[in-house]
Amino acid sequence: MEFGVPQLEILAVFLAVYALIVVRRIGRFKVEVWMAMLLGAVALLSLGAVSLGEALMAINSQVILFLIGSFLIVGVMAQTGLLQAVAVAVLRRARTPSRLLLFVIAFVSVASAFLVNDAVVLVVTPIVIASCTIAGLKKTPYIIAVALSSNIGSALTPIGNPQNVLIKIESGISTLGFMGKMAIPVVLAVAAEYVVLKAIYRKEMSRGTVLEIPERGPDLMGKAEWRMLIAITVGVMIGFITSDLTGVPIAIVALVGGTMALLLSPDRRESLKRIDWGTMVFFASMFVVMHSVEASGLLGFIIDPFRSWLFVGGVGSVAAIFGLSIALSQLTSNVPFVAMMLPIFRSAGASPDQWLSLAAGSTLGGNLTLLGAAANVIVLEAAECKGESFSFIEFMKGGVPVTIISSAIAIAVLSLLLGI
């Protein structure tokens, strides 16, 4: 392709946005991922690279509505104390450090599969830290377990994380088909995570401490309201799973559930504040940036060298998609990477197996480093709010082996299930 001034302007903005996502600073100013993407969208609008009408059309309203509805459900569950009560009820059954690790991994994995993982870790991280403080345990293994488990668990369903939602809406892959093929890889990956973290932190896990985690305080709401909220959540889960049969978009299912949950909130304005609006700004801005890059022809130019590997078919295609997903997710984080790949997969007429490989590779690859997934950064920020932290290298001690093992398992299983 020929590069003119418009293409060079768009390329410069695109590279600047992704550079900001990697370094996350401008001088002494911290730049959040959503702020970097917003700066890019505004720059493209200001340069005339995309019109206001085109920008509004580029924003995928289904994704935005799905996220708003999902965040409302999780937010009200947290606001009313229900999610915290369930978490504490599970963790109280752990009597030893290693069992606490197992229970943290299991609870976060399951919760992240059916609720947006970014929202889950925001609520669960402080609970895990408090539990470790009470038990007198080193907190790092358990905090890292929250991050790794949220990514692995969310890989089970097309509604567990934002990048899977993007792929579900774009590809039309069936929810049950997605879950059927990802069930074995996710279960084995969760088991592998437990074994790896227990081995890395064997000194902490070998302590014979008997844990005593106290009951929660008085309920913030009556049991009847909790039962209603549970019923709404179960109804939403059923709606997600059967959406392909009913024809009701998952965005509508989430929005109906979120609205019903909002009715049960003791403070509805507070519930609206609990929505991660930075995530909404990130997605809206990302759609604008990626539309501009795609329309300019730059995206095809960037990815063309990889096409013969990605869409060759069979086991080679699965392995290539995983490799590219894992590598580039560390540079851009997995959601922006998937957004960049959507038009490429669409234009190539990607098969369901290739779409599934993109979802699994980008999600499991998010565990390799701290920057691989937004959930990792959310866990770190939530921990820092409680006076705890962990380093980039500390995260990689568990993240690298877990990613290698879980990805190898997924590649093997998905390759065996090709075309089924």
UniProtKB/TrEMBL annotation:
Q: Which domain of life is it from?
A: Archaea
Instruction: Tell where it localizes.
Output: Cell membrane
Record's InterPro entries? Arsenical_pump_ArsB, Cit_transptr-like_dom, Diverse_Ion_Transporter
User: Which sequence ranges are marked TM in the entry?
Assistant: 6-23, 35-57, 63-88, 100-129, 178-197, 226-242, 277-303, 309-331, 355-379, 399-419
Q: Which GO terms describe its cellular component?
A: plasma membrane
Membrane topology field = Multi-pass membrane protein
The record's GO molecular-function terms, alphabetically, read:
arsenite transmembrane transporter activity
Alphabetic keyword roster: Cell membrane, Membrane, Transmembrane, Transmembrane helix, Transport
> Which residues are in the Citrate transporter-like domain?
18-355
Keyword Glycoprotein on entry: no
**Which protein family is named in the record?**
Belongs to the CitM (TC 2.A.11) transporter family.
Q: What is this protein called?
A: Citrate transporter-like domain-containing protein
Query: Could you tell me which species this protein originates from?
Result: Candidatus Methanomethylicus mesodigestus
